[in-house]
Automatic annotation (TrEMBL), chain A:
Family statement drawn from the similarity comment of this UniProt entry: Belongs to the binding-protein-dependent transport system permease family. LivHM subfamily.
Annotated protein name in UniProt: ABC transporter permease
BP GO annotations: amino acid transport
Highest taxon, organism lineage: Bacteria
Membrane topology per record: Multi-pass membrane protein
Pfam family, one: BPD_transp_2
GO cellular component, one term: plasma membrane
Localisation: Cell inner membrane
Record flagged with keyword Membrane: yes
GO molecular function, one term: transmembrane transporter activity
Transmembrane intervals: 7-32, 52-76, 88-106, 149-168, 202-223, 235-258, 270-287
The keyword Lipid biosynthesis is annotated on this UniProt entry: no
Keywords assigned: Amino-acid transport, Cell membrane, Membrane, Transmembrane, Transmembrane helix, Transport
Automatic annotation (TrEMBL), chain B:
NCBIfam families, A to Z: urea_trans_UrtC (TIGR03408)
Membrane-spanning segments: 6-25, 37-56, 125-147, 154-171, 203-223, 244-270, 331-356
Organism this protein belongs to: Marinobacter psychrophilus
Membrane-topology annotation of the record: Multi-pass membrane protein
Coiled coil ranges: none
Pfam families reported for this sequence: BPD_transp_2 (PF02653)
Alphabetically ordered keywords of this record: Cell membrane, Membrane, Transmembrane, Transmembrane helix
Gene Ontology molecular function: branched-chain amino acid transmembrane transporter activity
Protein's name in the database: Urea ABC transporter permease
GO cellular component: plasma membrane
Length: 297, 373
């Protein structure tokens, strides 16, 4: 029973990492970032490349992936998202286009494959990442077996959730983000540089996705289309939790992770995923604003 | 004197004549491909009707397409020679035999649990009708729940997206009943009044072409009707329409159902022309592709979305035949799509509309000038 709960928790914490970024981006900017899953994929590939070309371990890849995705997020915001504020459906479509582009960039090795140049670790094939020894030895606590990698994922997710909470509620920047969430125009009138804050918010969300990618790379094969299903799951979490609500996102990712874990243990993975989708549909129809919605919008 | 309506009628006429005259220029191999593009054109119309005119962005249109495809596909599977010669009393699909427990009776009624669901599909008329009825039924249930509950905007997109993935998983999981990942292959032909529609024939092409034209004209009349105008009013300001006494949910459900019916019919025709059914019809990527076609063609224009779907697929198929572009075609679509959303929010049709407007205003100006002189 305990191991089932632990599996559910680790699934939930991966979901949380993916959903945190989506949630603050959607909440504060009204942008649906369909390329978020591809940012996770880029994070995973940063780990692969760092391991092959620089000999860096998974731990060192965490800040690296954050920085890479943060920078990429800034670029996406500058060239695409910035032009689409207030056009919700268009952000969804344009970022889907960006997602296709990112996927193909990895698959085509940034276009170099046309010139016969190959970069080890990129391309359409499958990649894997070596998990540090520290995290691969199972630990026994009493009679319970604990997979240290799962525990590591949970700890990192909690850590990032706490950092995000601190950023949102204890810093000047966070105060500005929350002001923009409440009322963008009023915030602008009060002298907040909405453009700059939005750009940084988007980049921070992208950075979180990159870290999620590092976590994913440790227990799943890394491939160019690994991100597309993630963004769907992330979105379901965001919507179920209530847009812009950090607590809601945490509760929803825990809930959906557990539902997935329990039903996967009872039947099979496919049925478990199907049940998660069913639960999500039921919740949205029951409470279109999500479980814990951000009041005052 | 040029009027905007005249240009529109001219555009429809050119399109219809082109579609009808293709068999003069192409052989049957190309006609088969062309009929698939026409099917995609129907999906473009369905998306445009639902999204452009009713303001409902359905990210799971593949659900209706897939439902239509599976319904007729089941009938055609039972009509295939291999299904007919399995040694039982009636036809039995081959994959059911592979999945059957040893000693099971080789009969559709009880070869595995649930296989009796296939029994009515021995009649092709049943499969044909269900290919439209089932999508409409699904849309009606889903639509009435969603719209009555006041679910709106992007939440509808998320629900439809989750639903199509849910159904896809269930279809894949029910391997013994649906063929799982493989879908339904090795299908028989659609027979209608003793005539069998060979996918590589002019008759099948005309089946697709005439259907497309009827759907195009039908939806055109629909959006110009009172119901269509009310729907556009609801799209632009739902609350205002409600205060005026219109039942917004009923209109939304109705348009959602019409769009589902068109998609189901498109699924049915796709099976006739391509001779297989696959769970990939319900992949998220396919559903979003449909939205892309409609967005590039112009969501606010039925003809535009239809042509968008046809042209993108035609280009895609042609370009991906040349070796250099096989890999990069996807990237080109992605880039093109981003550019269209950024710079042409109304798609190609929007650009053409702009030209036409300039043309018509210019000519009316010169006319006024002529009167003054």
């Amino acid at each position: 029973m305990l191991d089932t709960i632990l599996i559910g928790l680790s699934l939930g914490s991966i979901l949380l990492l993916v959903a945190l970024g989506l949630s603050i981006i959607y909440g504060s900017m009204g942008v649906i970032n369909m390329a978020h899953g591809e940012l996770v994929m880029i994070g995973a590939y940063s780990t692969v490349l760092a391991q092959i070309h620089m000999g860096l371990s998974l731990f060192a890849a965490i800040p690296l992936a954050f920085v890479v995705c943060f920078a990429l997020g800034l670029l996406i915001e500058k060239f695409v998202v910035r032009r689409l504020y207030g056009r919700l459906f268009d952000t969804l479509l344009a970022t889907w286009g960006v997602a296709i582009l990112l996927q193909q960039a990895i698959r085509l090795e940034f276009g170099l494959s046309f010139f016969g140049i190959h970069i080890a670790g990129l391309g359409p094939g499958l990649q894997s990442v070596k998990v540090p020894d520290l995290l691969s030895e199972p630990i026994f606590i009493g009679e319970f077996l604990i997979q240290p990698y799962r525990a590591f994922i949970i700890i990192i997710s909690i850590l990032l959730a706490v950092i995000t909470w601190l950023l949102m509620y204890k810093t000047r920047m966070g105060q500005q983000i929350r002001a923009i969430m409440r009322n963008k125009d009023m915030a602008a009138a009060c002298g907040i540089n909405v453009r700059k804050v939005n750009a940084l918010t988007f980049a921070y969300g992208a950075g979180l996705a990159g870290v999620a990618g590092v976590m994913m790379s440790g227990f799943k094969t890394v491939m160019p289309d690994m991100g597309s299903s993630l963004v769907v799951d992330g979105f379901l979490v965001v919507v179920v939790g209530g847009v812009g609500s950090l607590v809601g996102t945490i509760v929803a990712s825990g809930l959906l992770g557990q539902v997935n874990g329990i039903f996967a243990a009872l039947s099979n993975d496919i049925i478990a995923r199907a049940i998660v989708f069913g639960v999500v549909i039921a919740i949205i129809i029951w409470r279109p604003q999500g479980l814990l919605n951000y009041k005052g919008r | 004197m040029l009027k905007h309506d005249h240009l529109r009628i001219a555009a429809y006429a050119i399109f219809i004549v082109t579609v009808l005259s293709l068999p003069v220029f192409f052989d049957e191999f190309w006609l088969n491909r062309a009929s698939k593009y026409l099917v995609y054109g129907m999906l473009g119309i369905a998306i445009s009707l639902c999204w452009g005119y009713a303001g409902i962005l359905n990210l799971g249109q593949g659900l209706f397409f897939g439902a239509g495809a599976y319904m007729l596909g089941m009938s055609l599977k039972l009509a295939s020679p291999t299904s007919l010669q399995q040694g039982g009393a009636g036809p039995v699909p081959d994959f059911m035999l592979w999945n059957a427990e040893p000693g099971a009776v080789t009969d559709l009624c009880c070869i595995n649990s649930g296989s009796y669901l296939w029994l009515p599909f021995q009649s092709q008329a049943f499969g044909f009708i269900m290919a439209i009825v089932l999508p409409v039924l699904l849309a009606f249930i889903l639509g009435s729940v969603m719209f009555r509950k006041g679910v709106s905007g992007v939440f509808i997109s998320i629900i439809t997206l989750a639903l199509v993935l849910l159904v896809r998983l269930l279809v894949v999981d029910a391997q013994a009943l649906t063929g799982g990942f493989n879908g339904l292959t090795d299908l028989g032909g659609l027979t209608f009044g003793g005539y069998e529609f060979d996918p590589y024939s002019v008759a099948t092409y005309y089946l697709a072409a005439v259907s497309l034209i009827l759907i195009l004209l039908g939806t055109r009349l629909l959006v110009n009707s009172r119901a269509g105008l009310v729907m556009q009013g609801i799209r632009d300001d739902e609350n205002r329409a409600k205060y005026l006494g219109f039942d917004a949910a009923a209109y939304q459900t109705f348009f959602f159902c019409v769009s589902a019916a068109i998609s189901g019919f498109a699924g049915l025709l796709y099976v006739v022309t391509s001779e297989f059914v696959s769970p990939t019809f319900m992949d998220l990527a396919f559903s979003i592709s449909m939205v892309i076609w409609a967005a590039v063609g112009g969501r606010g224009s039925l003809l535009g979305a239809c042509i968008g779907a046809i042209v993108i697929n035609m280009l895609g198929a042609t370009i991906s035949e040349s070796e250099v572009f096989v890999e990069s075609w996807q990237a080109i679509v992605g880039l093109f799509f981003v550019l269209v959303v950024l710079f042409m929010p109304n798609g190609m049709a929007g650009v053409v509309h702009g030209w036409c407007r300039r043309l018509t205003t210019k000519s009316s100006k010169s006319e006024i000038g002529g009167q003054l002189q």
